[in-house]
Amino acid sequence: MRQLHSLVGLVAAVLLVVLAISGAILSLDPALDRLGATVPARGQFSVATLAGRVAQHYPGAEQIQRTPSGTILVYYDRDGQVGVDRVDPLTGQGIGPHVPSAFSRWLKNLHRSFLLDTPGRAAAGILALIMLMLAISGIVLLVKRLGGWRHVAGPLRGTLVQRWHAYVGRIVVLGLLLSALTGIYMSAVTFEFMPDGAQNDPDFPSVVATGPAAAVTALPALQAVDLSDFRELVYPYPGDASAVYSLSTTQGDGYVDPVNGALLSYLPHDGIGSTHEWIHRLHTGEGLWWLGLLLGLCALSVPLMSVTGTLTWWQRRRSMPRIAGNSGAQAADAIILVGSENNSTWGFAATLHDALTQAGLRVHTAAMNQLASEYRQAKWLFVLTATYGDGDPPSSAQRFLARLPRLKVNPDTGFAVLGFGDRQFPQFCGFARDADAALHAQGWHRSLDLETIDRQSGQAFTRWGNAVGKLLGRDLSLLHTPVRPRTRSFELIERVDYGQEVQAPTSILRFRAVAREGVAGRLTRLLGGNGLPRFEVGDLVGILPPGSAIPRFYSLASKSGDGFLEICVRKLPDGVCSQFLHGLDVGGRIDAFIQLHPDFRPASGKAAVILIGSGTGIGPLAGFIRNNTGKHPMYLYWGGRDPASDFLYEPELGAYLADGRLTALHAAFSRVKDGAYVQDKVLGDAPQMRELIAAGAQVLVCGSRGMAKGIAQALDEILATVGLDVQTLKKQGRYREDVF
Hints:
It contains 21 helices and 25 strands. The chain is of the alpha/beta class. It folds into 5 domains: 2-29 and 104-196 and 287-315, no CATH class; 39-89 and 210-269, no CATH class; 320-472, Flavodoxin domain (Rossmann fold); 488-595, Beta Barrel (Elongation Factor Tu (Ef-tu), domain 3); 609-739, Rossmann fold, CATH 3.40.50. Helix 17 links the parallel strand 22 (634-640) and strand 23 (664-669).
């Protein structure tokens, strides 16, 4: 599906852009026509009244026409000169000559046929079919990627280009589907694959009343037609006693006797004709100017989608590493099988491949789908796999589980599975767990327990590499840094230190952006900006400590609108980055970049928010409270060691309680008399917790993995009586974690 979506989109991109831009410009015509038209309310007056008013100013009128937008046109003959004017239906007086735009006519030909007549019309029809295919396949891919329909409106992940492609597509897909379907129908009608409902005129009357013609205002058939239902009135030919009025309305066509005003014959429109007319209106916006504008806006997304789609395809191809020195499958000492959706896992696999090769092993690396039936010489089998959507295999591993039973088990070969994912997904590393269990069930020896890596953590990959090195009895250093954005320089402007007395030095650090040089910097200063890149509370800042290429990520306790970048950092004995940050004095600088993390922030709405954390996990939670200017209900549960030493953000939290941004604070401290942990506080407030969550509250948890596990167990116990659990809340998007 992805290959089809990419290939078709790349091939048709240029022509689709031409079709979309021309359609977007044409969508303005109905709105402009409607803007210049006077449209009386339904029931205000009849066609007879309109014709009488027109007759006062155009005695030589031959035809009156009402366009779908409501503009009234009169065709006339004056002193032998024919003309067409726009008229005011309220007075019948001319507004100005009607001169169709040559540009609009040329643009319609471009849109309908690329100025190539019949072959161009065929191409336009095929492109409408391609647009339909792209819209449907795009929906399928988005739903699959987000883990099902229930998550389709949830936060988007991936690179900036990928997020823009998916975000815009999610907004405009219905409009593009409507344009594609109606375009396909109109093309099918053009080539007579479907009927257009065109019908013959009603039978011409054989008998017409004799005598002088009555005034047009006195004709009953015209008095019975409301102006809103009117399409066209053609006058009788002067001097012809058998001539009649020809009347066309939204319901049908007929002839009107000019003497007595009777409707002589009438042919109603059939269902096929009415359907064709409505589909034409839906595609062009004629008579539905507001829909035309909406479809035009949707069409304008096509150039953007073409660019972002092409860039996404290129990024995916570029991220696919070339494995140097790849040994044959049957001669290799170590096998690396890779499951990846966007090729990011291949970068980690290439690093492992190179490290094992340098350690003197023959290594074979391949996609999980390329599982061989046997690996004769292999002593180790390493599986590195991501998980797609709601626990599904990624594209390069979709056939792995089906092929696994055919793999001959080698009792001398041990396996280890490393899963990649994002803990915000309910099925975090779900496919990696399935692969690990399936290999073990087939009789393979598990050399290392399953390990998981959250958000492509370089540190976690290095730790896993150390375990692999011990397994192999070799010195193995796995250093892999995924492609990161360019760093910016930030300067420390303020720090508050805690925790020295309880052997847990922790600092709240605030930074400002160092002014950029050049035009961009001068423009920022001129506009009064703070120079910070855009970020929200809960996003991540990747900091590169001196001498290290691997960034360390910290959750942000501020948003860019606060005017500073704030993080909360505990000093760890072996922490390269935390040691560096704690050694910074005011005025010291860091190199860092922002990584958006839209999954960890409160959802909009008035439902209560329950914030739970421990230690430095209070950073983003305090930021959420700081920015709760709407004073929605927020409850904070947090655990520290000693209130006299490491009560982080204590002054700020007191102020937030006073001004209503924080509804309640429940702090637990473990190193005091009758000490407790944060999960104890949560269990102690079980009735209120149960009531809040049952009423729709959302839960955000930030802190250590052990704490998060304890909180999940506590909430499962609390919610059991109301038929809820943490897993259900995750699927509903009401339970979000940022754990480390």
